[in-house]
Amino acid sequence: MMGWAQRLMPRSVAAQLMSLVALSELIGITLAAATVIFLFDSPSVNDTQKFLAGRVAELTQLLRSTKTPTDADELLAAARRGGLDVRRVALSELVPRTVGETRPFSIRAFRQLAAESGIELLEELRHPAGSSSQVVVKLDDGHALMADVAVKGGFWSFLLRPVAGGGIIVLISMLLLSVYAVRWVIAPLADVARAATSFGRSPRSPEVLRRRGPLEIAQVADALNDMRTRIAALLDDRTRMLAAISHDLRTPLTRLRLRSERVGDDTLRPAMLGDIAKMTRMINETLEYLREDARSEAASFIDLPSFLQTICSDFADMGHAVSYAGPARLPYACRPRALSRAVTNIVENAVKHGSKVAVMLRLTEAGHIEIEVADDGPGIPPALHDKVFEPFFKADSARQEGGFGLGLSIAQDIAKRHGGSIALRLREPSGLLVSMLLPPGPGLA
């Protein structure tokens, strides 16, 4: 049964939208018709004329029973106040109806009631001053009762009111059902957007996007799932390649360093060892940038001031003037190894070009965590502030000499994966300030 329903369902977005709007119109018209039948069930024209015929017959009986003309006039005035347009006219004022004259009402109800009540209906006579909807009933030998039996307010009662009510119901039902229909079609697009955002932050996520909705959206879901699979395979291949590079390059570099240490020339040996150290550092920096373990590291709470003071102490032990300024305690949830790598890269870049480096920690008014690393070096021109975050870019001022220019790229990548950002600012009179802004709570991706 479900298989047949799926085959009959339109596949494209346009067809589904058209079908849902048409269905909403059909449901709205059905509801309007039911409402008109049950809520606007006004009496028919024939029923109304039967009611008027009864009132005319009753008034005729009462007029025949009056004793004076004054009593008759009071009775007629009361009937007119009740909504019945009646007058007592002389028989001599009546004229015959013209041949072919049509009545805008059915005379059948008046004939039947006249026969039942014993009153004389003068069908072939009419009063010249009356409308075409008049009915004339004989009262006595000299007078007749003329009544206008036109149905008052018929257009509103029998056509306009039901049509207006039905139209309002159709519009409301179409609006509500169209909103639901559009949301039903658009909902799979929201899933695609969420999946694309999640995939951009975590390509190795095992979540598979469900294939549902119109044909076009289902095709996008298939393409996204296929892209996720292929990118995951590429990442696995890259990881295996990096493992091979790490093994194959570190071994010969180690042999070169050992052989260089046995070189007898005191001038050549330091130069060779320096080049080997530089090559090792460049390889380590590249592997560090491409590693995936930082992305899969579990988050944990650390004391951020102690964390930063440890990094400053490590550089101070190597003879650099690196100091810490900030609060004494501040718990924070992060990926410790990744955040340590980011801050270390920034401080390492600062100590290369400045004699004094200050690591500052503070809370912003919005509750964000801001880690600032300031040095007194030559700085970087403002035009290159965005460029230095690009992989393998090296500024002309040689602030990134001795590597592939990946230190700040790695730091920016780690900051973004914590939900934060990095910005550069020049200091006065000289120097550079690198600001890492992190969210107040876990914003890990």
CATH architecture annotation of the largest domain: 2-Layer Sandwich
Strand content: 5-15%
CATH class identity of the largest domain: Alpha Beta
What's the name of the CATH homologous superfamily of the largest domain?
Histidine kinase-like ATPase, C-terminal domain
- Indicate the percent of residues in helices: 40-55%
> What class, by secondary structure content?
alpha+beta
How many DSSP H or I helices?
A: 12
- Cα separation of the termini: 43 Å
**Largest β-sheet summary:** 5 strands, mixed
What is the arithmetic mean of pLDDT? Answer: 75
What gyration radius follows from the Cα positions, in whole Å?
A: 48 Å
Q: Name the shape in a single word.
A: rod-shaped
Low-confidence stretches: 396-404
Q: Please give the number of β-strands.
A: 12
Following the backbone from N to C, one meets helices and strands in this order, namely HHHHEEHEEEHHHHEHEEHEEHEE
Any idea how many domains? Answer: 4
Strand order of the largest sheet: 7-9-10-12-11
Report the CATH topology name of the largest domain.
Answer: Heat Shock Protein 90
Compact summary:
The chain is 55% helix and 14% strand. With 445 residues, the chain is of the alpha+beta class.
Architecture overview:
The chain has helices at residues 2-8, 13-39, 45-65, 69-81, 108-117, 154-201, 215-261, 268-290, 293-296, 304-317, 336-353, 407-417; strands at residues 85-90, 95-96, 125-126, 134-138, 143-148, 300-303, 321-325, 331-334, 356-363, 369-375, 421-426, 432-438. It is α+β, with helices and mostly antiparallel strands and 445 residues long. The chain has 4 domains: 9-41 and 155-200, no CATH class; 45-152; 215-288, Helix Hairpins (Orthogonal Bundle), CATH 1.10.287; 298-438, Histidine kinase-like ATPase, C-terminal domain (Heat Shock Protein 90).
